[in-house]
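Listing S7. Sequence submitted for prediction.
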Amino acid sequence: MRSGLPSTYPRSCPGTLALVGPRRAGKTYFMYWIARDLVNRGWPHRSIVYLDFEDVRLMGIRPSDFDSFIKVINEEAKAWNGRVVLLLDEVQNIHEWGRWVRTLLNRGRYLVVVSGSSSRLRASEVSTELRGRYIERLVLPFSFREFLRVRVFKPIT
């Protein structure tokens, strides 16, 4: 990332990185950035899986589908150093999503990043569901000054 900008996600995490914030704040783009950063640090593309739970093809996914979900992930993803990164976008759309994430973490094979809009996935819900097994990052839209700094605009003097 450009110098002068803060570190945006931890290099190690106790389980899950939870991205929360208002709609249209950039949580999905932040997930793409995490994936790109991991690839730049040597992770193979096939060890990183992004799932958007607003996709119509995933509507109605139920806890009874978990075994099929894991089977498909294991068939498509190739673990790197024994791990697969799962980027689960708009996770609040999965019924009992917290149980899904806890089960994934208990398997020890998955590094999980979850996101959700604060209107539907509250920080209190994340803390209840993941019980100390997560790091939360509040993602807010850039201020105009931050936007200019990222775009490397120089002030006119």
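Caption to Listing S7: primary sequence and predicted structure tokens for the chain studied. The two ends are 27 Å apart (CA to CA). The beta strands are 16-21, 48-52, 84-89, 110-117, 134-138.
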